[in-house]
Amino acid sequence: MKTRYSFWSLARNALTGHRNWQPAWRQHALKPRYDMVIVGAGGHGLATAYYLASRFGMKRIAVLERGWLGGGNVARNTVTIRSNYLRDESIPFFVRSVKMYEGLSRELNFNLMHSRRTMIDVVQTYPKLRDLTRRMKIMDMYGSHYDRISVAEVRKRIPALTGGQPGSRLPVLAGMVHREAAVNRHDAVAWAYARAADALGVEIHQNTEVTGLTVDKGTGICGVATSRGPVSADSVALAVSGHTFQLARSAGLKLPLQTFNLTAFVSEPVKPIVDVVVNCPDLGVYFSQTAKGELVIGGMPDAGLSYRRDIKQHVFENTVSGLLELFPTFRRLKMLRQWAGHLDITPDGSPIIDRTRIPGLYVTAGWWGGYKAIPAGGLCFAKLIATGEPHTLGAPFSLSRFDSFNYIMETGTTTVV
Amino acid sequence: MLVINCPFCGPRDEREFDYGGLAKAPRSKVERVASNSEWTAYLLHPGDQGRIADEYWWHARGCGEWVRVRRDTTTHRIEQSEVESDR
Ligand SMILES: [Zn+2]
User: Fold this and answer.
1) Distance, CA A306 to ligand 1 centroid (Å)?
2) Residue A397 pLDDT exceeds 70
3) Which ipTM score applies to this complex?
4) For residue A320, how far is its CA from the centre of ligand 1 (angstroms)?
5) Would an 8 Å CB–CB cutoff place A259 in contact with chain B?
6) Which of A169, A256, B3, B62 is the most exposed place for a label (fewest CB within 10 A)?
7) Which residues of chain B lie closer than 8 angstroms to A313, CB-CB?
8) Of A169, A181, A179, A178, which is closest to residue A124 (Cα–Cα)?
């Protein structure tokens, strides 16, 4: 039984010089067989393992990870959690995910540093205002909020916003306030799910790259080939974001996905300057300030397929020049790091949570902005795998919708597009 | 940033180009002969996306021609670029 994290455990370990903390998850020898193999120890893979074990009592689950736990896309995003989507299928899913995040520190006994921030969209064109007004009306039906505020109110709530004055290239027209928006700590999310899943008997194997899927033509999935030898399994679930297309193809499956990179970078830490998530959809840039004081800034996707983990210089420059139009004082900020998250994008921009035509092979993919979807995505995927029936909230995100071009065209996927 | 060798203008900055997606068979050659499932697959799937990808780039802020570029998606190294006459 694992130590519960609490004030007392903290105090007790402080008195003994923090030498007696137990590892948050165990290391295991890789077994030749499991009931369930989940490929990818990122947010979605770990959450799926946790819900399979905790909600559906599933045993003998292994999560296989090529690198280190939480070192993939769960660490390569901007931790923005929100539910301001457009479609009837998307909004209830993300409303649920945001709610689940709010209770997650308690459920997983791990401080996720969850901070409900509110997001303010700084609107600078009438077409964008129309799009957001349309979203507002649909969101209203599902209990997610957008409230329109005046330019004066926008400037009052974001004092650093000094650009976009009347007479400039794109003057600020209005603000849209999404009060459910939050940020939290990405490492903590990965570690918390891993620790909770481990406590329920899930084995997590890092440095174990899945190099291909093993399929029997008659019976379906048999297991996976890994860098540490073959592993057989009744069911295999893919949660590998940008590498889903390649891995599925090793089983002869062609999924409608393409991998692009989305820009993000982070500044040096500065004193508190902004307490909301600021989104500038007309300029293609958004940011929030972390508890440490860094500005975490997100931008546009890089054009063309990419499996590099960086962005091109001009994409960075475009994002920065947009930011400086509205926030000229940021000119003096130094940038510390930049990275790219791999997005595996579907034709309609909405995700896939489904089984495949290969019996026993499941896939969760197409997560453009998947960080906010981790709790609900994991829960829906686990429900489908454990019971064979899709979760109500996950059911629309089927693979078969593409056969009939029954698209769920989503404009709310990234904050900018 | 990519430097794309336009067959008409020579090596030019990626910012002069618009991305046109992965190269695939021209629509006019597929739409009349494809079965339902082939047609669905044609519309849904981008072209082949191995490590080496063939893609279209439009020299929009240059000569206005389409260029077919073969690029390594893990390094951005361009192996070949030629005129795309099917677009
Ligand atoms: Zn040219």
Assistant:
1) 23
2) yes
3) 0.89
4) 28
5) yes
6) A169
7) 1
8) A169
